[in-house]
Amino acid sequence: MEGLSPEFWPLVLVGFAAQLIDGALGMAYGVSASAFLATLGHPPAFVSATVHAAEVVTTGASGLSHAWFRNLDRKVFMRLVLPGMVGGAVGAYLLSEVDGSLIRPFVWAYLFIAGVLLLRRAFRQVMPELLRAPSHALGGVAGFLDAIGGGGWGMVTTPTLIARGMPPRYAIGTANAAEFFVTLSISITFLFTFDWRRFDLVIALLGGGVLAAPIGALVAKHIPARFAMVLVGLVVMGLSANGLVQWWLK
Question: N or C end of the chain: smaller count of CB under 10 Å?
Fold first, then answer.
């Protein structure tokens, strides 16, 4: 098809794969998409801006759905969303102002750690430090890391809330509803601080995700969550380790 950039169809596949992962795990769309995008050679700010612009739509739909079914704890929501928006905006601003070549190894390292956390979640409980953190601190840290690494909000907030004793229904709904505002804050910050505006790539990610959504739901029924978590953790770790090696050899 004429007029499309060479990256369009690869990003459709990236969106498809990331949505399959999210459908199986209920999280890790941003981390998965960011890891794949970064392997294509895009700078960290570009990766995070593209993924979060696509996630504005997906998180908005998810947040509205959870609000409709009353899967929200309003007090925890407010404690998460405001610090999360601030942390996300600060992370996006720093990412857009720092030279991509300087921050790239740190982003790869973050993604590698995110893969390790996925493996940890498959076999162990959440880290005790997160359990003791106040909700506003949890939101601020999760928002900042989400902006820097291109994803990770759900991986940090949802299991922590569940481990604190919140029913999964409310933990997932509250975290997902707050994520829309965090993602929106990050996207707006990038729009004013980073010369990006590649909406064709956002459409590619969304298109792939829409195609994969029903398949992801089917996958979630038939693949054990622990197996999927281990598989995704290993893939993310492998991609990020390769990125770190390539950076080191340059």
Answer: N
